[in-house]
Amino acid sequence: MDFTAILGAWIAVGLTLFILSFLYRDNPLFKIAENLYIGIAIGYIFSITIYNVWIPKIYQPVSNRVFTSLSNWVPWVSKFVTPAGDAGSLTPLFPAIIGISLLTRIFPKISWISRYGFAFIVGYGAGLAIPATVATMFIAQIEGTIQPVFKLASGGAIDLSGPALWTSFSAILLCLGVIVTLFYFFFSLEHGKISKKVTKIGIYFLMVYFGAAFGTTVMGRFALLYGRFFDLYTYRTSGYYHATPILILLVLIFFFVYFGKSRKTSP
Amino acid sequence: MMLIKRYIPLAIVFVFGIMTLATYYIPPKLAQDYYLETMNKWINIVAAFAFLLALLSLFYSHYNKIKRKVDGWGYSIFVYIGFLVVVVCAIKSEGQLMTGPALTSLGWIFRFLYNTLSASMFAVLAYYIVSTAFRSFRIKTLQAFVLFMAALFFIIGKVPLGNVLWNKLFFWTNVSISQVTDWIINVPSVAAKRGIMIGIAVGAIVTSLKIIFGIERQYMGKD
Amino acid sequence: MNLNAAAEILFLDEFSAADMPYDAGEEALLKWKTSPLDSAQATYQVFASTMQTGGWIKVDEFSADKKFASDIKLPFWAWKARKDLHAVAIPLETHFGKLEKNKEYFFKIISIKGRQKFESEIVSTQVKRNWFNFARLNNLVFVLVIFGIFIWTVSHAKRKGLFIRRIAGLDAIDEAIGRATEMGRPIYYITGIGSMSSISTIASTFILGEVAGKVAQYDSYVKVPHYNPIVMTVCKEVVRQAYLQAGRPDSYREDMNFFVSSDQFSYAASVDGMITREKPAACFLIGHFMAESLLLAEVGATVGAIQIAGTDSEHQLPFFFTTCDYTLIGEELYAAGAYLSKEPMLLSTLRLQDYGKFFVIVAVVIGIALMTLSVQYKWDLTDKILENIFKTY
């Protein structure tokens, strides 16, 4: 097997054990993994910003534009630099200025400049949110709730069979559920006896929802756990020089020594 | 000075807010071509600058830890090691994870380190979800009991053993566990979810309006 | 040819072409009257060209019992959903590439029934960009009405006498901070992983201001680990102001707000580590959260912190609810700013939120009643109007 794959397997097993060791107790191995994780994640995001934003969205358009203009004015420039791709544009400078304005936060004297950046971001977000929320969370939710309570049977009369009545009951319950849940959120209503009861019923609906959401997620998360154990299982073989059993043993020995020692030192 | 420090920023919030809002009412493709795409690019660029701020803050705080030799300062070195290794590999692989079918060095790090760490945190999460369940299902109130029962139905429904048990114990009801869970999902659960979502919608719309009209402006700080 | 066969010819009546309304100028709309001879056995073939004389491309073909004006998904105020009219939208860009301005496009249709073919006259149209999407009029009307009521409510805010119900999670802030002071342990305030343009993050910064103010008064200590650098800079300002207002600018420290990671799980791992080591007396988890919600809240619960959570991410609510002492559910989070500040103008917006919910309740009740009656009495029109008003186009 390829050396890099074996090394990868050993590192993967080690890091998995380091992270999982946190479930027992905080320990140096977890601290190593935790800090390494931050470094790797930030390094990765940094590389993505370089290759997906800085170079294609800022550097290239601006430098292309600058070079094209330069070579128009001073022809000999084009002998040395040929701009890659299109003529470029200077528009990225505008968001760049907004971005730089955010950096003024470091200097308290001029930190108010950053407000221009916040204003842009927050204004855009709020403007985007209003119609979209009206559409997907307001109108669409009402649309989903407004349904006829009864269905017609094949004869044309209202269907009063057992299953149909159950459907009708469910439809009414759904509608009531929405109303009492909304009632729970009323802020400026002084609650009398009845409205207090209604609010309570609303809470029970919320509990059913929370329970259902919890129950469905539990199982989904377990699938991810299996995935992790599957990797550990794969890396146990002689092809990987028994990465999993050896590292488990080493971690256990470390734990034994480390927590044994700290037990002795602490009174 | 108040004008530059406060009123113009608030005016920018208002103008950008209304402008963005208006784009919802022109055909989506035009909005995308003429406004949203550019804005997204801009937001990306602004975020790229803000990320520099993050990087400075992170390095500074870990540098301080090392300099002052606070408890556990040695671990901070791993932040720098991780960062440097990834960035060097990224430059070497020009930001690509794969070259053809082969992993680049960045791709190797992504797969064996980054993915491993993320997946391990997910595994921790799986453990926590169980421990939370055990702790919170020590039923104290009727409300907690309702939550517990709802969750229980779903857990029973998803586990093969649960299905078998259900069919043994409740065969006389003529209702399968999946029918029960479907009903819970489609009736009481969805009712509460809709209630929550409509509430959130109302709250989000009003908050957005407060922001656009400059009534809520604490995020700008005072002066 | 006998007479009977001639009668079978499928003529196209009132065939016309026009620009597709309310679109970005990519489609042409062809219309013609339905015929009694329309059936599954007959077909229409649609041809388009950039010239009147030739270059015809077949752009659509369908059986004659399909594609009516009523099949076009537009609301009743923008479109007459007739059943006696065939209507086809032709996406010109897919056939002719990038469209030019003021260019005529030509269309003809060949109808085939049995062995009989009929070729229509040639019609033409230009396509143009429509700058108003009339189909979203319902949304616009809602938004304008909300704007109107908002401005009215805010400008008519009463000075006093507005009742607001208790929000337990917000009342518990004092308790949590008091406890932290007594125990001499820090308070963690986590703003979630939302960006500054997300509304819940903005709501969270407001609550942070109130919390930091109280922390300053009680002379306790707050730590705010960050995921998003922009949110961090905003929060620095908010906390600094809070300390200034509480009259303790000397106690404010720049590193109360610090950046951890912009990566969801490394952020969670690191903050989990901090919480385990420092054992805060109180944790606030307020803002936008995803899967890391439980990773953070569960660790907080195991170290015995009082936890107050609040989020509008409805998927994470169950986890907060089971691990935290208090949870601000959805809208309660947005109400927090008004609730804590007690400013009349902000409080009046809470009433506005109640109007909104009241409207929904009324709309739902009346809507269901009308829908149910319309099943019984076959009020198709009522059905349609309701369906169109509460629909997103």
Features:
heterotrimer; A: 267 residues; mainly alpha; 75% helix; B: 223 residues; two-stranded antiparallel ribbon; 7 helices; 2 strands; 78% helix; extended
Description:
The complex is a heterotrimer of chains A (267), B (223) and C (393). Helices cover 75% and strands 0% of the residues of chain A. Chain A contains 8 helices and no strands. Chain A has helices at 3-20, 28-73, 77-80, 93-103, 114-145, 162-184, 193-234, 243-265. Chain A is extended, with a radius of gyration of 31 Å. With 223 residues, chain B is an all-alpha fold. Chain B has 3 domains: 1-55, no CATH class; 71-136, no CATH class; 139-223, no CATH class. Chain B is built from 7 helices and 2 strands. Chain B has helices at residues 2-22, 28-68, 76-92, 105-136, 142-158, 160-169, 177-212, and strands at 98-99, 102-103. Chain B has a two-stranded antiparallel sheet with strand order 1-2. The longest helix of chain B is centred in the N-terminal third of the chain and has 41 residues, at 28-68. Chain B starts with a helix and ends in an 11-residue tail after the last helix. Chain C has 393 residues and is an alpha/beta fold. Helix content of chain C is 43%, strand content 21%. Chain C is built from 12 helices and 14 strands. Chain C has helices at 3-7, 92-96, 137-155, 168-183, 199-218, 229-245, 264-278, 292-302, 317-323, 331-341, 344-377, 380-389, and strands at 13-19, 27-33, 43-49, 57-63, 85-91, 105-113, 116-119, 123-125, 187-192, 222-226, 257-259, 282-288, 306-311, 326-329. Chain C has a 6-stranded parallel sheet, sandwiched between helices. In chain C, strands 3, 4, 6, 7 and 8 form a 5-stranded antiparallel sheet that branches. A 3-stranded antiparallel sheet of chain C has the order 1-2-5. In chain C, strand 12 (282-288), helix 8 (292-302) and strand 13 form a beta-alpha-beta unit. The longest helix of chain C has 34 residues, at 344-377. The two termini of chain C are 50 Å apart. Chains A and B meet through helix 1, helix 2, helix 4, helix 5 and helix 6 of A and helix 1, helix 2, helix 3, helix 4 and helix 5 of B.
